[in-house]
Structure formats: C-alpha cells, structure tokens
Amino acid sequence: MAQYDLIIIGAGPAGMTAAIYGARADMNVLMLDKLAPGGQIINTNEIQNYTGVGTVNGAELAYQMFEHTQEFDTITFDYATVKEVIDNGAEKVVRCEEDDKEFTASSVILATGTRPRCLHVTGEDNFRGNGISWCAICDGAQYRDKDVVVIGGGNSAVEESIFLAGIVKSLTIVTMLDLTADPIACDKLRAMDNVTIYPFQDILEFTGDSHLEGVRFRSTKTGEEKTVSCDGVFEYIGLTPTTDCFQNLGVLNKFGYVEVNDRMTTKVPGIFGAGDCVTKNLRQVITACADGAIAAQEASHYVKNL
Questions:
Q1: Does residue 102 sit in the same domain as residue 195?
Q2: pTM for the whole thing?
Q3: Quick check: helix, strand or coil at residue 52?
Q4: Mean pLDDT of 133-142
Q5: For residues 283 and 173, what is the distance between their CA atoms, to the nearest angstrom?
Q6: How many other CB atoms sit within 10 Å of the CB of residue 230?
Q7: Are 177 and 200 in contact (CB under 8 A)?
Q8: 190, 250, 290, 298: most buried by Cβ count inside 10 Å?
C-alpha cells in the first residue's frame, strides 16, 4: 500500500493546481482520476476568461496544465475510480474500485468536480446518447447543417451555443429563465442570424419514435405549448457534485457539495476540498485553480505539523 504526503482525488484545474503547489511545498503527491486530466474543461470549445491566456480551447488548456504537473518528479498521476476515503486520524486511506487498490496519505484533497444535471422528463432516457447530448465539443460535428436545440441559458449553454451556431443550420435556445451568462456572450449569441431564443419555458417532452424528432415545452408566463423539430439536443441545465464516494466522511452538505471554509478545510482534519465540488458562489476555471492552490498550502501546513 503506497504512502504519500498528499492524495488529490480529481485531476481537473483544481486538482492539477493543488498538485503543483503540493510539490512545491516538498510533498510527495498522488493525483487520481478515473478519466483523462482536465475535468469539464476538456469538453469546452473556448475559454476566454482565464487571465493571461486569452481565448484557448479547453482541451488544450487541460493538456498544458497536465504537462506542468509532469515537470515535478514528486507528482504521480494514476487512473483510478475512488470508491471510499477512510479517515484514520493521521493516516487517510483512499480505496479504489480497481482490484480494491488502496493508497494512504497524511492528507487528502477532494477535487472531483461536477457532472451535468438531467431533466428527467419523458423521452430523455430514450434518446440519451442518441439525439441528446451534454457535450457540444464531443458531439456537435455530427449535427453540421442540421437543426439543433440547446436547453439552458447559463455560461456553458451560451458559450456552447455560439460554437454550435457556427456549424448548424438552425439553433433554438430553450431556457427556464432568461439568458444569464456574461452579457457580452449573450449579445453575441442574440446577434447570430440562425438563432432563436425561447426564455421562461418548462421542458415537457422529447418527441420521436426510433429517433429524436423534437422538443415540446410550455411557457411559464402564458401557458402556451410549442414543439420545435430538431435533429439533436444539448442540455446545459446545471451541475451535480461528483461526491458520492465521500458520504461516509460527513463533509457534504444536503446538496452533496463538500463544505469548506475560506482555507478549503473541511471539519475533518487533514481533509480538504477544492474546485467545483465545494460550496462556493462562482464555478470557473480560475476559481478552481485558486481553490487548489489554497487547499495544497493548507495541506502542507497540516502535514508539517503532524
């Protein structure tokens, strides 16, 4: 059973930044993730608000971050699906699904991020992965010159809609409120000729038999129902924290987010949180990186004082 100063669960921007700061604090660091490093930004076409970088493809930024972590001999990355973290006081045990493999460390940072939320309406399960997607970068190309619907009005929905509008025949935005993304992005989307926006709508159903044919929705203001024909749908309606494997630690709030203070510490000594999976107001790449830096710094202080 390998022993480390710090185990970071999750290799998104928060986890990778934490790894770098941990290594610079002379800690032996293990970073675990069940998928490729980068987290949600791998599926983002353009990131325009990461200071000093300008416009950058999400996967490219993720690669640059991971390459940075690999400059340190004291950072190890491993693919693993964590199923449980056990607090044994000065020693933490991270148990993984693969062959019940275990790692131990003096401190752990929980940085597992979030996953897209679903609508749970009629037809969604039928067309999941076959007409309905949660990743425009992954699946957008197959809808070139076709009719597409995007559900949602936040930053992710608007940014990915701008990307999609450049390749599809028509793009319809259906959102439960109004567009709530950055005003500059919203104005850019509204100005695109092939975009139609329906704000203040409830999604009722995804229609079709063997393949997706359309989306039925109802106005929350007038009660009027409408069905828009489409070839594909992309959902961007919020996120759910990926924290099921931490339930035994007693560090989650009622929504499943890791409760931390401004130093990224949880109520369990030696357990820290960082990134989108923690309680916070703004979930962006830059805030995730800041969380990771703070969490690693606090973890180094904790380990040195053991």
A1: no
A2: 0.83
A3: coil
A4: 87
A5: 22
A6: 24
A7: yes
A8: 298
